[in-house]
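quick one, 327 residues, struct below
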Amino acid sequence: MSLTAEHPQAPSTPLRGDLSQTAVLLELEPVVEANLNRHLSAAKEWFPHAYVPWSEGRDFDGPLDGEAWEVGQSRLDETTRTSLILNLLTEDNLPSYHHEIATLFGRDGAWGTWVHRWTAEEGRHGIAIRDYLLATRAVDPVELERARMTHMSQGYVSPNSHHPINSIAYVSFQELATRISHRNTGAYSGDKVCDQLLQKVANDENLHMVFYRNLLGAAFELAPDQSMRAVVDVVKNFQMPGAGVENFGRKSVQMAVAGIYNLRIHRDEVLNPVLRNVRIFERTDLGPEGERAREELVEIMDALDGAAARFEEKVAARKAREAARRA
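---
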């Protein structure tokens, strides 16, 4: 399940009176500064090396003449390995993500301080997960490195870079989706060390989500119709930044069936909480364009609910067949 529209559409035509990119950045800068200070006071220092069981590590084959990797060395099942690899490869594209937000938000003032702080915090996620995977021999290191090279060589270009409000809306959902994916992977793994590590990663992602969600709320106060249209465009065309990973479709279906991340989680635990926080369905400050966009959003959410229910029925039927075969 790719969680992306089959035919992504271009952003909607700008509304009359839409704020320009520069105007949005300038108007939101005080909000950025306030939320940057809140973030710095809430964030707790942690060290990736402290969550890696180094004592389990040993040399691999190659120049050091160690032991070649084979799947029996991993204490994780295939689904957990798939999820960890997909999440790690997503984190690996950080240089492209930094380029995207630095280009859009700038590198000066509160926006620039946030861009660099966010990048620094995100950087430790890939470090920690890769060190854990290699120290515990959880995955094939050769295949992992080849996958990293392939994925990073493609780079990442945000489909929302045309305007700050669209980008803010996207990352509000995406940071929460990433947090849940990491958290559920740790819980699913059955490995205490893995779970503990991914809890730390998920905590960072949650703080990032709160930062962007607060900016989205401020954007609605600033330009309600424009923000509503941006949210609809993002929800309609949403895809995770790791969608470009090789065999993403197969990997995401595997995670969906396991309950790590699927349409039900996407709708109920990612989209709905953010929409509730910014009072999407309660707002009384929308004009005609904003009201039409909100009606479209209701239709999208209803369609997602139906698609999630159908997927759940298929998974339940599949599990029933498997149980019958084992009986």
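The two ends are 30 Å apart (CA to CA).
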